[in-house]
Design brief:
Shape: globular
CATH topology: Deoxyribonuclease I, Chain A
Oligomer: single chain
CATH superfamily: Endonuclease/exonuclease/phosphatase
Number of domains: 1
Radius of gyration: 16 Å
Number of strands: 8
CATH architecture: 4-Layer Sandwich
Helix content: 10-25%
CATH class: Alpha Beta
Distance between the termini: 18 Å
Strand order of the largest sheet: 4-5-6-7-8
Order of helices and strands: EHEEEEEHEHEH
Number of helices: 4
C-alpha cells in the first residue's frame, strides 16, 4: 500500500518516471534492494520492483508487483520501449505483465514502427502465458480518423488477435493515450489474474 495515499494495488505500471533518482538495477531488471534510494521508501518493501536501467529520463519505466499477489517473478524482459515480468500468481497461474512507453507524435514515425516491432516480438516470446500490456501508447484510437500511430497499433492488434479494453474517460487532457492490450490467452483465462 502506498501509505501516504492509502492506495493499494496488485500491479502498477509506471511510465516516464523521470523524477526518480537513478537507482541500482540488477542484471535481471530488479531495483536492487540494497540501494539506499529504495530503502528510503519503506512502503516499497511489499513490492517487487522491475525497472529500466535509466529511471531519470522520459524513457524510465517501472512495474511494481505486490508480493502478496504473487509467489514470485519467474523472469523479466527488457527492450528499448518495453519491460516485462513473468508472474507466478498465488493460485499457481502464470502471466506476463508488460509495460511500455511509445514515442510521442513529434518523433519520426519510424520510431513508433520500431516500438511496434519490439512489442510484436515480445508478444511472440510471451505467447504461452496470458499477457497484459499496460502502456502509454501515444496513439488516439477513437474518432473517425486514426493517426499514423493508432493505425500501426490497430494493425498489431488485428494480427496478434489481442484486444484493447479502452477506458471510458480521457487519460491525459482530452486524449486517451493510456490503456491496456490483452492477449488471447488472457481473455480466455481471466481467472489467472484475480
Amino acid at each position: 500500500m502506498l501509505s501516504d495515499q492509502k492506495i493499494h494495488f496488485d500491479i502498477l505500471a509506471l511510465q516516464e518516471v523521470g523524477a526518480v533518482a537513478q537507482g541500482t538495477v540488477t542484471d535481471y531488471g530488479f531495483w536492487n534492494r540494497n540501494d539506499p534510494r529504495l530503502q528510503l521508501h519503506d512502503e516499497l518493501n511489499d513490492y517487487w520492483v522491475v525497472c529500466t536501467d535509466c529511471l531519470n529520463s522520459h524513457l524510465g519505466q517501472a512495474i511494481l508487483i505486490d508480493k502478496s499477489y504473487t509467489d514470485g517473478i519467474l523472469g523479466t524482459l527488457k527492450g528499448d520501449r518495453f519491460i516485462g515480468a513473468h508472474l507466478l500468481h498465488k493460485s499457481g497461474a502464470k502471466m506476463w505483465i508488460l509495460a511500455g512507453h511509445l514515442p510521442h507524435h513529434q518523433q519520426p514515425i519510424m520510431d513508433y514502427s520500431n516500438a511496434m516491432q519490439e512489442l510484436n516480438s515480445l508478444l511472440q516470446r510471451t505467447q504461452h502465458s496470458p499477457c497484459l500490456v499496460a502502456a502509454d501508447w501515444n496513439a488516439t484510437l477513437s474518432g473517425t480518423t486514426l493517426d499514423a500511430q493508432a493505425l500501426q497499433l490497430a494493425c498489431l492488434v488485428a494480427e496478434s488477435k489481442c484486444q484493447l479494453p479502452m477506458p471510458k474517460e480521457p487519460t491525459w487532457k482530452n486524449k486517451t493515450y493510456d490503456f491496456f492490450l490483452a492477449s488471447p490467452l488472457l481473455l480466455q483465462n481471466r481467472s489467472c489474474c484475480k
